[in-house]
Inverse folding.
């Protein structure tokens, strides 16, 4: 009886090992994949400290992934990366692209829209509508583009060291004094939207409306 039980146990172990080997062959051998060592914000330059290498079965390695930190270091993240997320070619900006071009997804353009909104009212990632009011011919207002994403917010002191008190170092607080400070929004648009915005900017007054992040339906009567 002991011999029979031993043989049965041996056969069971052999069958289990055979299944493990088959499964390992199906997913392939472990390969090196570069992942984010921590949360990485869009537009960040990937330094070695922001990256690490893990080993996963070949079948689970994302297309376009990298095996060496050296191949990724210095590239700019085209979108946010969560901790442990694989770094792939589609998530990185083009090599040697400029500071703005490196953030623009393939097939889109960055168009500058001037606005009277105060600095801080809009942040990168917000969605906006651009309205154009034509005063010639039959005056009217039309929606030029809707729900376009803000890539960057440019202001007189945004992103650069401000002089004490603002207002060009004169010791005056322009915002507190009620003096409007120009703000320009770089928005992501298609080629067709780019042409519509260029025409509207040349012949109309532009205004910006901030869209809700939740994209809720409008209340009745609005």
């Amino acid at each position: 009886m002991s011999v029979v039980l031993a043989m049965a146990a041996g056969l069971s172990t052999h069958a289990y090992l055979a299944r493990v080997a088959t499964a390992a062959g199906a997913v392939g051998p472990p390969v090196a994949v570069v992942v984010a060592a921590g949360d990485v914000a869009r537009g960040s330059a990937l330094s070695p400290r922001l990256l690490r290498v893990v080993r996963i079965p070949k079948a689970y390695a994302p297309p376009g992934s990298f095996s060496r930190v050296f191949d990724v270091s210095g590239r700019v993240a085209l979108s946010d990366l969560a901790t442990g997320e694989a770094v792939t070619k589609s998530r990185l900006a083009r090599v040697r692209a400029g500071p703005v071009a490196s953030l623009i997804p393939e097939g889109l353009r960055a168009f500058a829209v001037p606005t009277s909104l105060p600095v801080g009212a809009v942040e990168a990632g917000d969605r906006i509508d651009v309205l154009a009011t034509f005063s010639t011919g039959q005056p009217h207002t039309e929606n030029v583009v809707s729900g376009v994403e803000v890539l960057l917010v440019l202001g007189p002191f945004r992103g650069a060291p401000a002089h004490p008190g603002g207002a060009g170092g004169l010791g005056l607080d322009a915002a507190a004094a009620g003096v409007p400070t120009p703000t320009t929004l770089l928005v992501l648009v298609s080629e067709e939207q780019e042409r519509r915005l260029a025409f509207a900017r040349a012949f109309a007054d532009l205004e910006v409306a901030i869209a809700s992040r939740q994209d809720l339906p409008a209340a009745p009567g609005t």
